[in-house]
């Protein structure tokens, strides 16, 4: 049986994480939160965004501090609360906002909305609403890496709810049978829409599922950006060195409803209060201030820089055209050569 | 020159594409050591190695999902369903991931999903189905079914070279019953082109798959009464060769649409509707559908025989139609 680590065993070597890396983590986490805040709390309420909005408020450390380990030609299959992945992979804020506004300049040119976006030029596979479906697909990418002898890794994301799906298990089993270079990052935010984890699975941790696939796994505090960063590094190194799949479960909390229209009245208030005290951005800021790596002025200038980026993106997206109605017919099949 | 079976034609087509293009590989249940339940992939493991002939767990979603993921990285996977009936297990991967990918975000999915379909082999409810209708209402997929060995080889090659996901529905009743001499040089049968199997001007039978042979047998019987029957093999349901269908309808003025899948909700309804919409003025009688009964595919021979459209059913329908 493979070694299974637990929270208590993931003692950090955080002194080894450079100041520059920490700054990057903080930048992308803050950018994720601010861009989603603008989308959900401003643009959505102004009626500039139609359709659903799903955000990763309070979970930013997971997307950011894992995907930051991606190397050239690695592939990522995010899920719907992973804004940070798109930003880290270089998808522009302008195209992201335009995507939410249904504009022709959006990532999917208006064909799909919100987080349903991907771009192979940025190595991102678009997720579908059928949770867990991205797992076999990511495994197929990892299979290709193995066939080609390429030392790349597939980064595959799921919430804890998706791990109830058959496709999730089929994909994980396939990947483990073929010892593929893939890491399963589980963002366990404890609620699947309104369904709490105890109605989702009989095991305590999603990581408890891993031994059935002879897969290495660990459970990590998903609101501790540095612990996320280190554990993801271990997992990705493991997969990249040919040892097979690895699962990391990040414990976190969904600090919002399932979507913009859900007030999450079914979540006890105390839970929100408890997890608000564990906010990943504030924790990283405090750590960096304590370590002399960040100042209040530094935070302010980062915030200002991010506000300017988002202002520009919103302005650009808002001036972008909608798709032509006839574009509806385009792109169902390959066109031309 | 030796005759090549329909089954061997499929195998040759995949084999030659794997030789021609190193991006092509096969995956599925028992495709490696065993060579596939029907031996379509026989010998491939030894020749191409385990990297390109991937035995999978019994996980149709994983098979198709992995094919999709590999295609995103430039591969050309050919996924086998051991029986096409099992394709229901990966409905989601096909209809939601593969079919919509290009439309949603511009990522083409050049994969082939192939497997033995059809009845008349006493396979019972789960080894005999025709699944084309399950997928016909999903834009983004292509759907083909060959009826000859030539088409079996030419269409599998075209499917592998295609930029979009193709459901290649081979008919297991034809596997070893149909054979012909094939050209030694490389050829493809373009997807989306129907083929006239017999020319005639009194009656048109529009069909595909194994039913092509029932149509031809019916045409022989009708010919004894002096009726000249045209048999059109559509070969590709999506894209559909609408021009060929309308030409047959306009030429013969009396049309039967014949298929082995169940009647209600079957592809025949779509074909009939196209003819009614676009060639109504040319029709001298109702468009008649001949198809399997609206039941699961029964097992016992007398039941299955009753279930499947028989040559006599086609002849009876033709006589009624000719009376108009």
Descriptive terms for the model:
heterodimer, A: alpha/beta, 6-stranded parallel sheet, two-stranded antiparallel sheet, 10 helices, disordered N terminus, B: 324 residues, Rossmann fold, 2 domains, 7-stranded mixed sheet, 5-stranded mixed sheet, 38% helix
Q: Which structural class is indicated by helix and strand composition of chain B?
A: alpha/beta
Under CATH at level 1, the class of chain A stands as Alpha Beta
Q: What does the radius of gyration of chain A come to?
A: 19 Å
What is the tally of beta strands of chain A? 8
CATH level 1 name of the largest domain in chain B: Alpha Beta
Q: How many E strands of chain B?
A: 14
Protein chain pair with the most extensive contact, residues per chain:
A-B, 43 and 43 residues
Cα Rg of chain B: 19 Å
Strand content bin of chain B: 15-25%
CATH topology of the largest domain in chain B: Rossmann fold
Order of helices and strands of chain A: EHHEHHHEHEEEEHEHHH
Low-pLDDT runs of chain A: 1-12
Give the full name of the CATH homologous superfamily of chain A: Thiamin diphosphate (ThDP)-binding fold, Pyr/PP domains
What is the mean pLDDT of chain B? 98
* C-alpha geometry of chain B: globular
Q: Please report the number of helical segments of chain A.
A: 10
